Fold:
Amino acid sequence: MHLGYYPPILMYHHIDDVKALTDCDSVSFKTFELQLQFLKKNNYQVITFEDLCKNIHKGISKFKKTVVITFDDGFKDNLEAAKILKKYSFPASIFIIISSLNKEDFLSDHDINWLQNNSTIHFGSHTVSHFHLPHLSIHSQEVEIAHSRNIMKEKYGINTNILAYPLGGFTKETLNVVKRLGFIGACTTNRGYPETKSAHPYALRRIKMTENDNKSIHLLTKCSGYYNIFRKLKSPGVQHPSFTHPSLT
Structure:
């Protein structure tokens, strides 16, 4: 690992013009395409999250102008984002919540099948129920993670070995669970322990993309590989503001 370098993994949720006006987790279609144009114009190599994890396991973690694109939750508007990504021949990973599929504003079974056959999208697990893992027992964490992957295989024919932690939360024991279950990598937000500050394959930190990231200087900084130098590491076990206890859902 080169000193201070961290592979840039971009994180999106919604791509939606209306939501982008008020929701910090949303980016408009215009800004999203501008961001992709920046990557293409400046000759960035966009690789899959799986390939990044494989390279880290091999001890390779720095590539000139290399970026990973990810989406969390599996929202319906990701369909249109996928069409834009294909236009630029950029792959991306969507981490889906099993219990949210086929609900309003989320991808449907038909959408999942369409994306598999008509896009550059890859799929990863975001667990079954999107519970904050640090608040679950180890057994419950195993069920949430393993059952999600099993359903993706049985229902959609998706063989996935990557995971995104709901709300970015995990414990040191969670890392062992994910590895034991055969995943090759997992990503968080800006959360981790001191030992995961460098590019740990089961606790890869991501960079939130916003509607304000519409200028070259912003994009250069976030895609440089050195953006994490300026970010304070947050505890991965602290209760997230949007967490709801499983018994209350």
Summary: The two ends are 42 Å apart (CA to CA). The chain has a mean pLDDT of 93. Residues 138-156 form the longest helix (19 residues). The chain has one domain: 9-230.
